[in-house]
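Q: I'm teaching a short session on how sequence maps to structure, and I want students to see two examples side by side rather than one. Could you give me a first protein with its sequence written out and its structure tokens following it? Keep the formatting plain so it prints cleanly on a handout.
A: Of course. Example one:
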Amino acid sequence: MLPKPHFLAGSIPFGGLTFPTYRIALTAMGCIIFVLLWLFIRNTKWGAILRAGADKPKIAEAVGINIPLVWVMVFGLGIFIAGLAGVLAGPIWGAFPGGEWDILVFALIIILLAGMGSLHGAFVMSLVVGMITNVGHALFPEMAMFLLFALVVIVMLVRPRGIFGGIKY
């Protein structure tokens, strides 16, 4: 495990329960990053270019937008966010060879449940997956991952696009 920052090493009692300060800080950071990303995509010129390139790439290119450059920049932003997430989650998950597969399984589950292209759906489903995982590990540890995959199977049978797939905001 990687060390936690000293100022976030304690815990906070709330309503008869005790919550680790570092996990509360991670939840707050996740919410802040979500809001900043949403504001960037919705309210900036770059966000409009990104949305235009995602919805109608041929038309965006016709009006002079360099779509390959947009995709490179989006990929770079994704790499930055993934790297930041890796650094922030290091004290909880640890850092070891092959550890990325543990994270990728959860990412796949969240994307399948939320639906492709839904930032809101990914946010909501990440909270749902986190809750199911923690409750599952607390109540019946052998079945925690089975619950997640059973939920994915049910959602894919009922709504193959995902719960939030195809919804525009």
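Q: Perfect. Now a second example for contrast.
A: Example two:
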Amino acid sequence: MRVFVILSALVLAVVSVLAEGEDGSMVLPKLLHKVAPKSPASFRNLGFEAHVVLNANVTETGSVESVALASCRSWAPGEAEFHEEPAKRCEPFVKSATDAVLKWTYQPATQGGMPVRTLYTVRVSFVHKR
């Protein structure tokens, strides 16, 4: 069995996506170090998929200070579509994603050339292939 954990930091920002210019516009943080989440063992052999979306608070130094759950969608073999759910099935994926994202480091966002705190959205996807 092969297990694939797909990580992607989405550039869905709470702040505007602008190129930094002399007008003081903002540049989003750049991911420097990513820690892969551990796939929940209880779901690994069952073929489940989950997509966890977290709102991450990135500090002026580039560390992730905190995260908050925005959404979790999961799919199990035999289901016709993904389900939006904060249910028990998502809990281990949310915990794993949260633990990993809190260890990520970034080049901090800047505004007018100065580092600033940023709140933006991170997506962590778990895809298990049999």
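Q: What should students look for in example two?
A: Point them to this: The longest strand covers residues 2-13. Also worth mentioning: Strands lie at 2-13, 26-27, 30-33, 49-58, 64-75, 83-84, 105-107, 109-111, 114-116, 118-129.
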